[in-house]
Known about the structure:
Elements: H1 3-15, H2 45-49, H3 51-58, E1 68-74, E2 79-86, E3 92-94, E4 99-100, E5 104-106, E6 111-112, E7 114-116, E8 122-127, E9 142-149, E10 154-162, E11 168-170
Antiparallel strand pairs: 1-2, 2-3, 2-4, 5-6, 5-11, 7-8, 8-9, 9-10
Amino acid sequence: MRPQRIILPALLAISCGTAASAEFADHPGAAPLHSAPSRPKLDTPKARKFRTQLKEQSALGPNLSGHYRLVTWGCGSGCLEWAVVDLTNGKVWMGPTQTCAEPRIDAEGTPRWAESRADSAVVHLYECQMTAETACPESRQDRRHSYRWTGRKLEDLGIDCVGADPGITAGPR
């Protein structure tokens, strides 16, 4: 038997398996912000390059783990970049790579490439399904990559395939 035949089923199981404890309620957020959000510190070339998105979105307040802001912006068709800003001190953590993203469409018709909540440390990114090996088994499911924000980095919780939630439907395929 060729090695590819052994690896391929394993990749399918991993790519569309259930993410380990990836629900918002499973990972409570840090202490909430009790003051005005700090301006992001633009102390790296990449942070300076995306200063407008970092400043504008940080001013909206926390949307991740109590006092953090998940900031996202497009970088081309099907491309998403992101950062996390600590709103207590302005420290910026830039996402290490661009993500191939495919949005979920909510009940109001708004695309959601990423989801986070101020009361949780969980971040969900909705990824492209580029090949048969990474695609979800049903065409109306979304490939969701879940992470937990530790206060210093994103910890990978895994990838799963999720169907339509109440109020959210899969985007066009």
